[in-house]
Amino acid sequence: TNYVKLFKDPYFIVALKNTIQYTVVFFPIFMIISLCLALLLNSKVPGNAVFQTAVLLPIVVPLSLAGIMFTWIFSQDFGIVNHILAHWLGRPDLQRFWLGDTETALNALVAVGLWKYTGFGIILFLSGLKAIPSDIYEAARVDGVSPWQNFFYITLPNLKGSFALVGIWGIIQAIKVYDQVVVMTNGGPGTSTLVLYLYAWKNAFVFFDMGIGEAIAFFTAALAIIISIALRFIFRTEKG
Length: 240
Fold this sequence. Notes:
The protein is 71% helix and 0% strand.
C-alpha cells in the first residue's frame, strides 16, 4: 500500500525527478574529472605532490561543513562566485542568487558533491593506472604508437574494472545525496532541490509516517542497486 501511495504522491515524483537530474549532471562530470586528474597525477609533472594534496584534501572535510562553506561561496551579496563574475570577469549580468534560484540551486549542490567526492574517484582511477604493466607501454612506444592510441587502445581497456568501481561508487553518492541539501537549501527554493533521501527523512521524522519513509528509503536503495548492476555489466571484464 505504501508503494502505491508513493507513485500517487506528487512530491515523491518531484523528489525522484530531482534525484535523477542531480545524478545525470553529477555522474558524467565526476567520471571525466576523476579520470583526467588521475591521468595527470599519474604523469611526472612538476608540483605533483602539492597537486595531490589539493585534490585529495576535500575527502577529509565533513560534507556538512563543506555545505556551510559553499553557502558562503554562493551567497548573493558577499559570495566569491558573484564577486568573480562582477569584478574579475566584468559580467555582473551573470550574477545569481545561486541557492535561491530554482534554475541554479540543484546545479550548485552538484558542484559541492563534485568538490567533495572527486578526490576519491581519483584515488580509484589512480590505483587502476598503477596496475597497468609498464611493459605494455614500452612495447607500444617501440612500435611507434601515438599518445592518443596509447590512451584509447591500452589505458581505457585496462581501466574497465576501475570504471565499474568508480561508476558504482559515484552513482551511490549521487542517489543518496542528502547532507549538502539539508545544510544549503533544505529542499528549496520551493521543491527544486527536494531529493529522495530528504523526502524519506521528512516523511519519517517530520510527518511521522514511518511506513512511507521506509518505502522511499527501500525504493532509493533498489534504484542504486539496479543502476550499479547495470554499470557492472557494462564495464565487465574478461575476468568477470
